[in-house]
Every structure is written in structure tokens, then in C-alpha cells.
């Protein structure tokens, strides 16, 4: 099984990919067509293989037959991919091309509609989750603010001997610790200096 995996990786994918690169580099139309036919047949083979592996993996020499099939597709002597493409794939796709295109357009439209629908639902769920988190967070915020207000209330000193309102301690920064002259005081000194 491991041998089959590496054989298929090398001969079924890497080798054709390298020669496809060379065809693109050389801009040879015949090589383009040859490797495009191979990749179409290989894609169909890979799709079919997904199902046949489930049901036929018990068959004797199943993996060896798959390696031989890939080698037959690649061989410049047998030209297996060109033969399968010209005899079966091209005529089938040509006769069904209109129906396939219509199905692809419908699938594209449905997938776009489904994407928009699920996108809207996702946004609604996200908005609901955000509102719920905000409301829970608001409760925590209000509790936090209550604790701050209780702490601030503890800094208020009530003067039981005086009948006036209690004094409040105000914390100021070091820059603001020096009293600034009021505007009226500075005007008074300024006007007295002129006299």
C-alpha cells in the first residue's frame, strides 16, 4: 500500500506536473493538449478511485492494477490518456456540455444564496452573543462602579462636632498641589501695581 502511494505520487502526479511545466515553458501547443488530456483523465480516475477503493480494495492485485493503469495513461507509446479522452470523455462532455453548464450556474447561484443566508444568520448569532456579553458585562461593570462609589464614600469624613456639611478630601497631582492665584487676585495686584 505504501509502495502504491509513492508510485502514484511520483508517476501519477509529480512526473506529469514537471512535464506540464516544461510544456508551459516551451509554449508547445501539442504538449499543452497532451498534458491537459492527461490531467482531465487523471482527475476522473481520482474521482472514480474514491469509490472503487471502498468496494474493490479486497480484489487481488487491485493496487498493482491501478499503478499499471497510471503507467498506461502516461506512456508515450500507448498514449492512454489521449485515447480515453478522444474516445470517451470528449464525446460525452460535448453532448452534455449545455446541461453541465446549466447545472454549474444553478449550483453557483444556490451556493451564493446559501452563503448570503448563512452569513446573515451568522451575523445575527454574533450580534446576539455580543449583546448578551455586553449585558453580562454591564452587570459586572455596574458592580465594579458600585464598589468604586463605596470606596469614594469612605473617603468622606463626617465632622460630628460641626453642623455644616462634611468635608471631602480631594486628591490632586503634584503639579496641581501649588495653589494658582485666582484671576481676580492677579487682576488686583496688576491694577495696584499700575497705581
TrEMBL record:
A GO molecular-function descriptor: olfactory receptor binding
- Keywords carried by this UniProt record: Membrane, Transmembrane, Transmembrane helix
Compositional bias, Polar residues, is annotated for: 155-172
Ranges annotated as biased composition (Low complexity): 173-186
The membrane topology term of the UniProt record is: Multi-pass membrane protein
Q: Which InterPro entries does the record associate with it?
A: TB2_DP1_HVA22
Q: Which compartments is it annotated to reside in? A: Membrane
A GO BP term, please?
Answer: endoplasmic reticulum tubular network organization
Chain segments carrying region Disordered: 155-195
Name the residues that span the membrane: 6-24, 36-61
Any one annotated GO CC term: endoplasmic reticulum tubular network
Q: What is its main location?
A: membrane
Family of this protein = Belongs to the DP1 family.
* Protein name as catalogued: Receptor expression-enhancing protein
Q: What is the lineage of its organism?
A: Eukaryota, Metazoa, Chordata, Craniata, Vertebrata
Amino acid at each position: 500500500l505504501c509502495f502504491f502511494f509513492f508510485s502514484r505520487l511520483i508517476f501519477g502526479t509529480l512526473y506529469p506536473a514537471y512535464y506540464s511545466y516544461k510544456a508551459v515553458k516551451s509554449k508547445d501547443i501539442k504538449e499543452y493538449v497532451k498534458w491537459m488530456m492527461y490531467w482531465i483523465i487523471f482527475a476522473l480516475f481520482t474521482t472514480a478511485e474514491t469509490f472503487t477503493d471502498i468496494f474493490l480494495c479486497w480484489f487481488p492485485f487491485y493496487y498493482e492494477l491501478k499503478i499499471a493503469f497510471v503507467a498506461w495513461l502516461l506512456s508515450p507509446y500507448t498514449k492512454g490518456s489521449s485515447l480515453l479522452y478522444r474516445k470517451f470523455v470528449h464525446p460525452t462532455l460535448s453532448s452534455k456540455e449545455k446541461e453541465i453548464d446549466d447545472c454549474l450556474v444553478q449550483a453557483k447561484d444556490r451556493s451564493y444564496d446559501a452563503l448570503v443566508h448563512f452569513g446573515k444568520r451568522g451575523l445575527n448569532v454574533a450580534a446576539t452573543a455580543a449583546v448578551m456579553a455586553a449585558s453580562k458585562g454591564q452587570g459586572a461593570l455596574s458592580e465594579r462602579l458600585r464598589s468604586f462609589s463605596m470606596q469614594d464614600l469612605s473617603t468622606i469624613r463626617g465632622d460630628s462636632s460641626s453642623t455644616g456639611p462634611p468635608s471631602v478630601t480631594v486628591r490632586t497631582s503634584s503639579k496641581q498641589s501649588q495653589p494658582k492665584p485666582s484671576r481676580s487676585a492677579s487682576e488686583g495686584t496688576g491694577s495696584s501695581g499700575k497705581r
